[in-house]
UniProtKB/TrEMBL annotation:
Keyword Amino-acid biosynthesis: no
Protein name: 2Fe-2S iron-sulfur cluster-binding protein
Signal peptide: none
Keywords: Iron, Metal-binding, Oxidoreductase
């Protein structure tokens, strides 16, 4: 007997339950854009390279072009449409607007969703590849420009609005201006430069 290739699923998107039939091969990105008319989430590469399709799933960022819609059932999905509170923009949206963190805007929904998660990950003390001191006693690393660039590196912007994007993320995180990274710690070194 032939197996069914579609199912009726319920997605919890921006706090609303949406029930829809989907082919099992449908990505979350296509379900959001083509079936639920949530076109704020953008399709760039459709292969996990550009970050334009970034949404939050249970508070963690994910590229929705690499997620199957059926696998997202029962999880909390937040898209760019779910961030503002009525006419009140989310602080990350406002910072991008105030600091011109975009040019064409195509990558911006993904950048903003990613930035939200970056700010939470950083505040929770998660290190990144740019963190110079990962010892637990070092605490939360300063949110430098290098930290922001590294943590946002999954989101590409073809216009090259990166300078303003870094500043917008810093502003939204409560850091007025993203600073350069501090120098690497020099522990375990003598004046002659050899390990002590
Ligand atoms: S469209 Fe998903 S990463 Fe590019
Ligand atoms: S603002 Fe144009 S691609 Fe990012």
């Amino acid at each position: 007997m032939a197996q069914s290739t579609s199912s009726v699923i319920t997605l919890n998107v921006n706090g609303e339950k949406r029930t829809l039939p989907v082919d099992h091969r449908t990505t979350l990105l296509d379900a959001l854009r083509e079936r639920l008319d949530l076109t704020g989430t953008k399709k760039g590469c459709d292969q996990g390279q550009c970050g334009a399709c970034t949404v939050l799933i249970d508070g963690r960022r994910a590229v929705s072009c690499l997620q199957l819609a059926v696998a997202a059932e029962g999880r909390e999905i937040t898209t760019i449409e779910g961030l503002a509170d009525g006419d009140q923009l989310h602080p990350v949206q406002q910072a991008f607007l105030d600091l011109d963190g975009f040019q064409c805007g195509y990558c911006t929904p993904g950048q903003i969703c990613s930035a939200l998660a970056v700010i939470e990950e950083h505040a929770a003390g998660w290190p990144s590849a740019a963190t110079t001191d990962v010892r637990p006693e070092a605490g939360v690393p300063p949110l430098t420009a290098d930290e922001i660039r590294e943590r946002m590196s999954g989101n590409l912007c073809r216009c090259g609005a990166y300078v303003s994007i870094v500043q917008a993320v810093a502003r939204a995180a409560g850091v007025e201006t993203a600073q350069a990274a501090p120098a690497l710690p020099q522990q375990g070194r003598t004046e002659e430069g050899t390990a002590a």
